[in-house]
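Final report, results section. Input specification for complex C-07:
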Amino acid sequence: MNEGISAAMRGRRFASMLAKEARQIVRDPSTFLIAFLLPVILLFLMGYGVNLDAAHTRIGLSLQDDSAAARSLAGAYQRSRYFDVRATGSLAELEHRLVGGDIRAIVVIPQDFGRQVARGGGTIQIVTDGALPNTASFAAAYAEGERATWAASQARDSGRALRPPIQVSARFWFNPELASRNFLVPGAIAVVMTMIGSLLTALVVAREWERGTMEALMATPIGMGEFLLSKVIPYFLLGLVSMTLCALLAVTVFAVPFRGSVFALFAISSVYLVPALGQGLLISAALKNQFVASQVALLTAFLPTMLLSGFVFEISSMPRVIQALTYIVPARYLIPQLQTVFIAGDDWRLFLPNMGVLLAFGVVLFALCVHATKRRIA
Amino acid sequence: MIGPRLRAIIVKELLAVLRDPRARLILVAPPLIQFFLFSFASTMEVNNIRVGVLDLDGGRWSREVVERLAGSPSVREIVPLRSDTELRQAIDRQKVIVALRFDPGFSANVSARRAAVIGAVYDGRRSNAAQIVSGYVERIVGETGATALARAPPALPGAVVNHWFNPNLNHIWFVMPALIAVIGAVSALAVVAQSVARERELGTFDQLMVSPLRTHEILLGKMVPPVLVGLLNATLFLVLTPLVFAVPLTGSVPLFYLALLFYLLSLTGIGMLISTISATQQQAFLGMFAIIVPMIILSGYAGPIDNMPGWLQVVTWFNPPAWFLVVSEGTFLKAMPADQVLANTWPIVLIAIATTAAASALFRSRME
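Structure output:
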């Protein structure tokens, strides 16, 4: 009989703890900022702002020859959909604008170009702004491609067509239009869940430690498990709500395909939130200071999710030491799952092993958390 | 020039920042860790590529293509595939980023000068890497094809490419100068955003208000530590970047510091605004975070500003890191002349004046 009463009481106690935490979340405008406003901003910036695909590059054109061939090639650049010919004129003037960042490349059609073409040659010069290597390599490749297309059409007109002996027919699965937003936006969802799981939790709980309300809670008869759960569940739900918001925006506003199932998306996200929350709690329990906890959360949760998860940068291209480091970044196991569930569809043989690793991380982090909290009390 | 009261408040603010040993560590350690982590992790090159090969031909030319691929320094491993099912699985599970399929009779077609086509399937989930890899594949196949022709193709007009300021397009040469702008922003904002909110949370703000200090003295005192922390971190990077990563430092260092000073002042103004609005440290930190993420994304570091839609490019005009990034890249790589450094500095000055004025107006109204 006693046990029955205590179970009922425990249930009530737990419910009131949850209600307290939930109220704390709802009351603070900064929680709203981080859980709803920032995800939306982030998604919009990722969707519109970060475009790694080749676009309309501003170039300068230095036309030093007056032949028909030179003018025809210059026209090809002016009509190109990859370039915006911003300036023409002397090379010295264009060079100054390249230093200022006004234009990103200069195409030089040299004197004598017409005569060289007539003799079966004709070399142009392409100067790029190497300070932006990504743009520079795209600009060089497309400027060269524009010239090659022009040369091929000239050759066709004069009946000297040339077909390469081996051709590659390339197909890009899952993302035939090669839109970088299709992988950036699911990645942004991983960042958002990390922010809520680790960053927000670390701050909120560190604050309780800092102000001493944690000790007050600890003095009540609630158990460690109950206590940790009451801290975790509200942020877990907040994380899922924020993820749902992001996913809806991704699909409706950014037209990112969603080929998997809603169940899989929620399963993947829920599993990821376990280590994320564990990390947030551990940071706060171990450091107890808001400023330090916030900086450590930034350094150990947010930055690795941005840099070491394969979200923006290819893991396989990193040096071996850094690659080894990525194995302890939970988001590394989330990104392929998110990209797959959005772009490719459900593939449980890819999901389950990754989920297993994430849950194992979660168990370890929560065990450390219990340990750190106990030590604090002692 | 500096009165005793002002000196006292500056010392007090410095002590507030530097007193806690863990906080001291947090001011310098993370920037250093980021210095090494960012530099090595943020590579846009694609190396260690795994290529799947389904060779139904097994003839001379398919083996020639595969051998050339295997010999490429960017390729780490050739994964032999036995069937179309295996090919699909290898791509689905991200075992390989590209799978090549040679039809039976491929070599015969090459030798007979009939159309010989290699089927290439890329993992479009990683679209940026896939595009780069497809460039590698096309080049190697093109080279193999050229040797298959008995005689050299007739000379067509060519192009000579020169990458200025960074001849080998070393990505790290771009990353490190950009990182000074990013780390400077993060470390300065982290310090200043906490300052007012922290005093308010601890209750010491009231003590400040009843002290004989003037408002502008309190404000100045609060702005000095973040600027010093930012200057310290930026100097550390300025010295380490050429030493560790051999990035050339070609421009004028005094002009760089001039721009840096105003850059840090503009950030401090933004941080003071956040701090004054916030009631708690938590709000201040989250507010700072909410502002710094868009600032970095819109700085040109994450993706080129040129590629943003026009209205978003206009937004970047109000973003201090976007201007300072140009100065930093210019000072390191381009030996940027003074007129262009200044052309990118005066917008920062305007932002600094506007944010500091707004912060002090808000601060005054909060004090009364």
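Chain B has a mean pLDDT of 84. Chain B has two domains: 49-148, 167-367. This concludes the modelling results for the funded period.
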